[in-house]
Specification:
Shape: globular
Strand content: under 5%
Order of helices and strands: HHHHHHH
Low-confidence stretches: 1-7
Helix content: 55-70%
CATH topology of the largest domain: Four Helix Bundle (Hemerythrin (Met), subunit A)
CATH architecture of the largest domain: Up-down Bundle
Number of domains: 2
Distance between the termini: 50 Å
CATH superfamily of the largest domain: Cytochrome c oxidase, subunit III, four-helix bundle
CATH class of the largest domain: Mainly Alpha
Number of helices: 7
Mean pLDDT: 84
Length: about 290
C-alpha cells in the first residue's frame, strides 16, 4: 500500500543500470522514420509508426511500473520527493516556453508582419493586399497572390466556449479530489478523479468535432496562411497536451484504486495535477487570443 517507514528508506535512492532509455529511444526512432516515409508516400511507413508506437508504449509501461514499485516499496526519501518536485517544475517551465513561442508567433504576425506588409513600402509588391487580421474582418482572408484558398475563421461561440467550460470544471473537480485525498477520503477522491478524466475526454471529442467543422465547412486548413498555421499549431498542440494530461490522471486514478498514495505522500498525484492546471491556464490564453481577438 503506502511506502515504508522513513527508518528503512535510503537517504538518496540511486537506480541501477537500465535499458529503458535506449529502448524507448529505439521505439521513437521507428516512429519518426516511419512518419517521414509515410508522408512521402512509402506505404511501409505506416507500419513503422504503429510498431514503433506499440514498442515505445510497452517500454514506458514497464518503466513506469518499475518506478511505481520503487516508490511503494519505500525507496524514495524526502530528498527524492524534492528532486521530483523540481523536475516537474522545470518540465512545466519548458512547456511554458514551448507555448510562449507559438503565442509569440501569433502576436508577431498579427501586430507586426501583417501591418508592415500593408504599408506604403510594400504597396507595389502587393497592391491588392489588405492588412487586416482575419479574425477581425471576415472576407479579408483570401491571398492576393492566389496561393491561399479563401477560408473563414473560427469564432468563440459555441464549441470553444463549451470546451472552456469543460476545462475549467475539470480544474475544479481535480482540486476537490486533491483536498479529499489530503483529508483521507479515498472514495471521494476516486469519484472526482473519474469526473476529471471524463471531462478531459469530452474536451477532446468536442475539439475533434470543431476540427471537422473547420476543415469541411470553413475550408480552414493548416495551409490557410499564417492564421491557419498558428490556429492549428496552438490548438493542436494544446489538444495533445490535454490527451497526455488525461492519460496521466487516468493512471493516477488506477493507482488510487490500487491503494497507492497517502495523505502525506502523494506527489504522483500532485505532479499530474500541476500539469493539468497548466493545461487549463494555457487554454484560457488560447481562448482569448485565438478565438476572441
Amino acid at each position: 500500500m503506502s511506502a515504508a517507514s522513513h527508518g528503512t528508506t535510503p537517504y538518496y535512492f540511486v537506480p541501477g543500470l537500465s535499458s529503458y532509455p535506449v529502448l524507448s529511444a529505439t521505439g521513437l526512432f521507428f516512429v519518426i522514420l516511419g512518419a517521414g516515409q509515410w508522408i512521402n508516400g512509402a506505404s511501409w511507413g505506416m507500419y513503422s509508426v504503429l510498431c514503433g508506437l506499440v514498442f515505445w508504449l510497452a517500454v514506458l509501461f514497464a518503466w513506469f511500473r518499475e518506478a511505481v514499485g520503487e516508490s511503494e516499496s519505500g525507496q524514495y526519501s524526502r530528498k527524492i520527493d524534492i528532486s521530483f518536485r523540481w523536475s516537474m517544475s522545470w518540465f512545466i517551465f519548458s512547456e511554458v516556453m514551448f507555448f510562449g513561442a507559438f503565442f509569440s508567433a501569433l502576436w508577431w504576425a498579427r501586430a507586426h508582419s501583417v501591418p508592415q506588409l500593408g504599408n506604403i513600402e510594400n504597396a507595389l509588391l502587393w497592391p491588392d493586399f489588405s492588412a487586416v487580421w482575419p479574425s477581425n474582418q471576415v472576407g479579408a482572408t483570401a491571398s492576393p497572390a492566389g496561393i491561399v484558398e479563401p477560408f473563414q475563421t473560427v469564432g468563440a461561440l459555441w464549441l470553444p466556449t463549451i470546451n472552456t467550460a469543460l476545462l475549467l470544471t475539470s480544474g475544479v473537480t481535480l482540486t476537490i479530489a486533491h483536498h479529499a485525498l489530503q483529508a483521507g477520503n479515498r472514495g471521494k477522491t476516486i469519484m472526482f478523479m473519474w469526473m476529471t478524466v471524463l471531462l478531459g475526454i469530452v474536451f477532446l471529442f468536442v475539439q475533434g468535432f470543431e476540427y471537422a467543422h473547420a476543415y469541411a465547412d470553413l475550408n480552414l486548413k493548416l495551409s490557410s496562411g499564417v492564421y491557419g498555421s498558428t490556429f492549428y499549431m496552438l490548438t493542436g498542440f494544446h489538444g495533445f497536451h490535454v490527451f497526455v494530461g488525461m492519460l496521466m490522471l487516468l493512471f493516477i486514478t488506477f493507482r488510487l484504486h490500487a491503494g497507492h498514495f497517502t495523505t502525506e505522500r502523494h506527489f504522483g498525484f500532485e505532479g499530474a495535477a500541476w500539469y493539468w492546471h497548466f493545461v487549463d491556464v494555457v487554454w484560457l490564453g488560447l481562448y482569448i487570443l485565438v478565438y476572441w481577438m
